[in-house]
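> call design_seq(struct)
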């Protein structure tokens, strides 16, 4: 960057002093520090992962109804969940068959309380047990997104 100074007849210069340039650059740097993280795709990752989880929950419900068996979606770790098919063992449903494993996008995690949490759908598409809420988080910003599965089997992303 070149600083040009013009000289008027009275000898006073027009242009920018070094202090003015340093202040302008500092303000520009501060604006970039604030703006650049907001332009990253991470908020989109959180929304996309919540929508994908909701879609996989709907798929599990649809599979349960169309295949007349139980399916469940279970949070396997803070970054992964699985879609599992059930088998009736005596009078108890177990879920030994993993049909799909999904890994969340970078920076998105399940809350620690969600690890191990599962929602099961019966052959009528209803939830076996109480309503379930999954919480996805963008740790860098502290943002969260919930996915709620109602007892009726309805999946919502509020």
């Amino acid at each position: 960057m070149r600083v040009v100074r013009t000289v008027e007849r009275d000898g006073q210069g027009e242009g920018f002093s070094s202090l003015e340039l340093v202040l302008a650059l500092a303000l520009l740097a501060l604006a970039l520090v604030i703006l650049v993280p907001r332009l990253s795709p991470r908020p989109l990752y959180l929304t996309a992962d919540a929508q994908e989880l909701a879609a996989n929950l709907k798929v599990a419900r649809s599979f349960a109804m169309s295949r007349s068996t139980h399916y469940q979606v279970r949070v396997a770790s803070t970054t992964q969940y699985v879609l599992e098919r059930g088998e009736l063992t005596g009078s108890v449903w177990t879920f030994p068959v993993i049909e799909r494993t999904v890994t969340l996008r970078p920076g998105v995690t399940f809350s620690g309380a969600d690890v191990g949490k599962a929602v099961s759908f019966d052959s009528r598409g209803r939830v076996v047990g109480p309503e379930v809420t999954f919480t996805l988080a963008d740790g860098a910003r502290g943002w969260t997104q919930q996915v709620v599965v109602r007892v009726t089997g309805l999946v919502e992303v509020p």
